[in-house]
Specification:
Chain lengths: ~350, ~325
C-alpha cells in the first residue's frame, strides 16, 4: 500500500516493472514466500488447514498491538512497555471475569481496553506533556506496570477453568463454516482495517505521518504535534488492553510472571520487519500485518519441521537482521532509480 | 569524579549547545541522582538497621558488578548517540560458550577464559559492522542480536546448567587486602576510572560527545564517526564478556538465560545518571552514582522483605521520577 507511504516515489507514470519493484512491502513478501515454499517442500504437511489455523491463532494478539506500536514509531517514538501493558490489563481482565463472571466477555473487553487506555494515557502524558524521551518513559513504565501485575494479583495466577467458557470460545469458534477462522482473528482484522482507514483517510491519521515525517515543519503548519503523539500512545495502550483480553482467551492460565512478558520484542520486530522506519514518518498497515504474518508463519513452520523451540529466538533475530538489511538495500536501489 | 569538570575541562568549552550553563546547573542530573542516593541510603539505614552491616553489603555488591561493567560501556555508547540492547545477551552467550566448550568439547577452561574477551569483542563487532558499516539504526540491529545471541546460547545448551570446576568458582568471595571489599568490585572501579578518563580526558572521548551531539557535524570536522562507532560496540562486547566471566565464577554454573533482562536495568542506570538518550551528554560518574542508587534501593527493598517481582515497580518509578525532576529543573532555568 504505497499510497500510505509518503516516502514512496510517485509511481503512477512509471513502467509496470518499476511499479512492482517500488512496492514497499516487496522484500518482506519475497521472504515470506521463500519461507512458505521451503517449509512446504521440506514438509508437505505444512500446507494443511491445521497449519493455517495455528498461524491464524498465533498472530491476532501481535497484530492488534503492532498496529498501535506502528503509529508510535511513525511519530518517531517507541513504546517498550507494551508487554507489561498486555500483562497488567490481561491480569485485571482475568481477575474481573473470575470474581464477577456476570460482566461477560463484552464487560471484560471494556475492562481490558479501559485499563490499557489508562496505562497508555500515562505513557502519553510522560512523552507528550513532560517531554521525556519515549524510550526512557516507556522503559520506566515497563518496570512499573510489570511490578503492578504482581502487586494487583498478589502473585497468584488465574486458571482457565475459573474463567467463563465464552471467553475461551473466542479462540475456538468463529462465524464461518468449519470454524477455521476464530473470533480472535476477526477482532485483529477489524483492528487492522480500522487502523488502515484511520491512517489513510482521517485527518488525525494523516497528521501522524506529518508529525513523524518532520516535527518542526508539522508544528509550523499548526498541527497539534503533542496531541498527535499523545494519541498514538493512548491508542497503543488501548490496543494492548484488547490484546490482554485475547491473551486470557487463548492461554490456559494467566500467570503474573508470564503474561505478556517479552512481547515488546515481538511487536517491535513485526513493526520493523514490516518496513516501518524507526526514524519516523513512514510505515504501512499492510507491511506491519505482513510482518506479523511472517513471524507467525516462522513460528508454525518451526513446529511443523520439528525444530526445537530453542531455535525460535535465533531465527527471529536472524529474520529481523535480514529484513532490515534487505529493506535498506532495496530502498537505496530504489532511490537510485528515482534519480 | 569527572562529571562536574565537564564544562571546565582544559580543552575549552565542550561542543554542547548551551555554553552559558554554569558548572552547577550543567550537572543537575548527577546532583539529582546523588540526592536520591543519599535519601535511599538514609531511609534504608533508618528503616532497616541491618542495612549497616558492611559484610552483608560487600556480599551483595558483587551481584551488581556485572551490570556495572555493562553500564560503563553503555554510557559511552549512549553518549555517542547509539544504544546496545544486546549487551546482556552477549554476556549470556559468552558465558554459555565458555562452559559449552569446556564441558562438552573438553577445551581447557584456561583457554576459554583467555578467549572470552575476544569472543565478546567479536559479537560486538557484528553489531558495530551493521551499525557503522551498513548504517542501520543501532536500536533495531541490537534488538535483533539481542534475540540472536540469546537464541544461539539456548540452541547450544538448551535448559541445562553446565557446572564449572571448583578452582574457578568464587571470585566474588576473594577479599582485597584484609578489607571486606571484594575483588570484582575493584575490577569495576578500575574499569570505571579507565573509561571515565577515556570519555572525559581524551580526544576519543571528545569525539564520542561530538558524535552524539551532531553526527553529521562531527563527520565534517574530521571525526572518524564510523570507526569510533565500530570501536564502541566492540568495547561493549568485550566488557560484557568480562561480566560473563565474573558471573560464571560467582554462580558456578552457566545457563543460557544468565543476565536476561539486564539490558533494561543497564539502560535505566545510564539514563538515571543523567545521560541524554539522544546522545551528546552523560558522564561515567553519573552512571556509576545511578548504578549505586539502583543497588541500594534493591538491597534495601530486599532487606525489607519486598519481593523481587515487586521491586521492578519501584525501579521503573525511580527512573520516571528522576527524569521528570531533571526535566523540570532544566525548564526552570530557561
Amino acid at each position: 500500500m504505497t499510497i500510505l507511504d509518503h516516502r514512496a516515489p510517485n509511481t503512477a507514470a512509471q513502467p509496470p516493472i518499476r511499479r512492482v519493484l517500488a512496492v514497499r512491502e516487496l522484500p518482506i513478501l519475497l521472504i515470506l514466500a521463500a519461507i512458505i515454499i521451503a517449509t512446504g517442500i521440506a514438509q508437505p504437511r505444512f500446507f494443511s488447514a491445521s497449519s493455517l489455523r495455528s498461524i491464524l491463532l498465533w498472530i491476532p494478539l501481535l497484530t492488534v498491538v503492532a498496529m498501535g506500536q506502528m503509529m508510535v514509531i511513525i511519530t518517531r517514538g517507541i513504546d517498550v512497555s507494551v508487554g507489561s501493558m498486555i500483562g497488567l490489563s490481561g491480569m485485571i481482565v482475568a481477575m474481573a471475569l473470575r470474581d464477577y463472571p456476570g460482566i461477560g466477555v463484552a464487560g471484560g473487553a471494556v475492562v481490558g481496553m479501559g485499563v490499557g487506555a489508562a496505562l497508555g494515557t500515562f505513557n502519553g502524558l510522560l512523552v507528550a506533556a513532560l517531554d521525556i524521551p519515549p524510550i526512557v518513559a516507556t522503559l520506566g513504565t515497563l518496570g512499573m506496570y510489570r511490578g503492578l501485575v504482581f502487586i494487583v494479583s498478589g502473585g497468584r495466577q488465574v486458571y482457565a477453568y475459573e474463567l467463563p467458557d465464552s471467553l475461551q470460545r473466542l479462540s475456538i469458534s468463529g462465524p464461518f463454516a468449519q470454524q477455521v477462522v476464530p473470533w480472535v482473528v476477526i477482532v485483529a482484522v477489524v483492528a487492522a482495517v480500522a487502523t488502515y482507514a484511520f491512517l489513510g483517510f482521517a485527518r488525525t491519521g494523516r497528521n501522524i505521518y506529518a508529525v513523524g515525517g518532520n516535527p518542526p515543519a508539522a508544528a509550523l503548519r499548526g498541527l497539534p504535534v503533542r496531541r498527535v503523539a499523545f494519541l498514538a500512545y493512548l491508542l497503543t495502550g488501548t490496543a494492548a488492553g484488547l490484546a490482554g483480553v485475547l491473551y486470557c482467551s487463548r492461554f490456559p492460565s494467566v500467570n503474573p510472571a508470564e503474561v505478556g512478558v517479552g512481547y515488546e520484542l515481538l511487536v517491535i520486530a513485526a513493526v520493523v520487519i514490516g518496513g516501518t522506519s524507526v526514524f519516523g514518518g513512514s510505515g504501512s498497515v499492510v507491511g506491519v500485518f505482513l510482518g506479523c504474518l511472517l513471524l507467525g508463519t516462522i513460528n508454525v513452520a518451526l513446529s511443523v519441521l520439528h525444530i526445537p523451540d530453542a531455535w525460535q529466538k535465533t531465527i527471529y533475530g536472524l529474520i529481523i537482521l535480514i529484513a532490515v538489511i534487505v529493506d535498506d538495500l532495496v530502498w537505496r536501489r530504489l532511490q537510485h532509480f528515482g534519480r | 569524579m569527572h562529571g562536574s569538570h565537564t564544562t571546565a575541562s582544559p580543552q575549552g568549552p565542550p561542543p554542547l549547545a548551551n555554553t552559558r550553563d554554569t558548572l552547577l546547573l550543567d550537572s543537575v542530573p548527577e546532583i539529582i541522582a546523588a540526592a536520591l542516593l543519599a535519601a535511599a541510603v538514609v531511609s534504608a539505614w533508618v528503616l532497616m538497621p541491618s542495612f549497616g552491616d558492611i559484610g552483608y553489603l560487600a556480599d551483595k555488591s558483587t551481584v551488581y558488578v556485572e551490570s556495572g561493567l555493562m553500564v560503563l560501556a553503555m554510557t559511552l555508547i549512549i553518549v555517542a548517540g547509539h544504544i546496545d540492547l544486546s549487551c546482556a545477551s552477549t554476556l549470556g552467550l559468552v558465558g554459555t560458550l565458555i562452559a559449552f566448550c569446556h564441558v562438552r568439547l573438553g577445551i581447557p577452561l584456561e583457554t576459554m577464559l583467555v578467549l572470552a574477551v575476544p569472543l565478546g569483542a567479536a559479537l560486538g563487532a557484528i553489531n558495530g559492522a551493521a551499525v557503522a558499516g551498513l548504517g542501520l539504526p543501532s536500536l533495531v540491529v541490537t534488538l535483533a542480536t539481542m534475540a540472536l545471541y540469546r537464541g544461539v546460547a539456548q540452541v547450544l545448551i538448551g535448559d541445562h546448567s553446565l557446572s564449572l570446576p571448583q578452582w574457578f568458582v568464587g571470585i566474588d568471595r576473594i577479599t582485597v587486602a584484609g578489607t571486606p571489599l571484594r575483588l570484582p568490585l575493584l575490577v569495576l572501579l578500575a574499569a570505571a576510572i579507565v573509561l571515565g578518563l577515556l570519555l572525559h580526558r581524551t580526544v576519543l572521548g571528545r569525539w564520542i560527545v561530538a558524535m552524539g551531539t551532531n553526527s553529521e557535524a562531527a563527520r565534517y570536522s574530521g571525526v572518524p564517526v564510523g570507526g569510533v562507532t565500530f570501536l564502541l560496540f566492540v568495547l561493549s562486547g568485550a566488557v560484557s564478556a568480562l561480566g560473563a566471566v565474573l558471573m560464571l565464577s560467582r554462580l558456578s554454573v552457566a545457563r543460557y538465560d544468565h543476565g536476561a533482562g539486564l539490558e533494561l536495568s543497564v539502560v535505566t542506570a545510564v539514563v538515571l545518571g543523567g545521560a541524554s538518550i539522544y546522545g551528546g551528554r552523560g558522564t561515567i560518574f553519573g552512571s556509576m552514582l545511578a548504578m549505586l542508587l539502583v543497588a541500594v534501593v534493591q538491597t534495601g527493598m530486599g532487606l525489607g522483605g519486598i519481593r523481587e517481582d515487586n521491586q521492578v515497580t519501584a525501579i521503573g518509578a525511580l527512573l520516571v521520577v528522576a527524569v521528570i525532576m531533571s526535566n523540570l529543573t532544566s525548564r526552570l532555568r530557561r
